[in-house]
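All the exercises in this workshop are built on plain-text protein records. A record pairs a protein's sequence with a compact description of its fold. The structure tokens are whole numbers drawn from a learned vocabulary of backbone shapes. Once this layout is familiar, the rest of the handout is easier to follow. An example says more than a description, so a record of this kind follows.
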Amino acid sequence: MSSGPSNDPIVQQLQLLLTGYGYNFYSSVNQARADDLLVRERASYHLAQAVDMLATLRGEYQRRFIPPLTRANPEPPQEALAQVRGIETAQQALSNIETAIRGMAVPSQDRIWWRFRQEEPLLRQLLQFDLALVRSSEQVYQYVTQLTPDNWNNQVIASLHQLTQQVTQIVRDRERFLLLPM
């Protein structure tokens, strides 16, 4: 049986009977669609863990390098506040990417897509983008796990920013891929 829909009512009924009225668990197209979701979930999970670890790092950094305010010292050290803002910025950037990954588009299962693109090869190509997302997000996670308040500095901020940009670029490339006509 072909992967696309048929206009013949008998073939349509047969497809419905064989596919459980709407979803064929054994179809390679549905497996590719499910794999795409699972892989993106894994990338999102790594980034969410990195965001949580940065929140913990920010709290530890504040406790360690920003002393309680007193009358003699009413203002916190500006360089320490700048580092805390750097942690917050990195945390927000990763959180935004994580949200974007969770909301990524997947081609719908309709006749329009079947007319212009082959669904299974398209999903396989999307899976390649998503695997690159997992690798990059896992690199971010591994990098963040090694961070401590003592080793947080401008060089670390630049490295984390570079890793974040790599993940962002993969997200953009994937979005651009879906917009290209085939």
Observations:
- The radius of gyration is 23 Å.
- The longest helix spans residues 28-65.
